[in-house]
Design goal:
The longest helix has 17 residues. Helix 1 crosses helix 3. With 159 residues, this protein is an alpha+beta fold. The protein has a four-stranded antiparallel sheet with strand order 1-2-4-3, with helices on one face. It is built from three helices and four strands, in the order ββαββαα.
């Protein structure tokens, strides 16, 4: 079997950032998948499921309600390795194109107060596994340490 694209990235060199993971064509539409890497793989602890689940709920709600981007959002959800998230957008984009969007989403999540969207048994299959405090903490950490001063080495996968 061929190795999938994400397994060809050297995760020992990968730093937290925003990367174009892949671009696919469906009919005449390009779909861009972004790797929103929040922790350094194999060096930092992975995120727990409760905060990942909360970031997923908050991030998806933010993106699907965004005035400019909502109609381009295909998917936002966690990586199985628990070191970040995938954002899939309809369109041909670079990492630089989404820095403002991702930064505003993480600002929204780090400042969020109130009930977590979709956190009821009728709305979610695991509504008890949420942690707003940790989701806010990790969002703020990513915002402060990565997004607010992001540069090229955090926007292009390492060689």
């Amino acid at each position: 079997m061929e190795k999938i694209a994400s397994f060809t990235i050297d995760h020992m060199k990968l730093l937290p950032g925003i990367y174009v993971s892949r671009k696919d064509s469906i009919n005449d539409m390009v779909i861009t998948t972004f790797d929103i890497r929040m922790t350094r793989p194999n060096f930092e602890p992975v995120m727990n499921t409760a905060e990942i689940h909360t970031i997923e709920h908050l991030g998806a709600t933010y993106l699907r309600n965004h005035s400019e981007w909502s109609d381009k959002v295909v998917y936002f959800g966690p990586m199985g390795c628990r070191t970040g998230f995938y954002l899939i957008l309809a369109g041909d984009y670079s990492s630089k194109d989404v820095v403002e969007l991702v930064t505003s989403m993480y600002k929204f999540m780090s400042d969020y107060e109130g009930d977590i969207p979709g956190a009821a048994p009728e709305e979610c299959g695991n509504y008890l596994d949420l942690n707003l405090g940790m989701a806010k903490y990790l969002s703020k950490k990513y915002l402060d340490e990565v997004l607010n001063n992001i540069n090229e080495d955090r926007l292009v996968y390492p060689e």
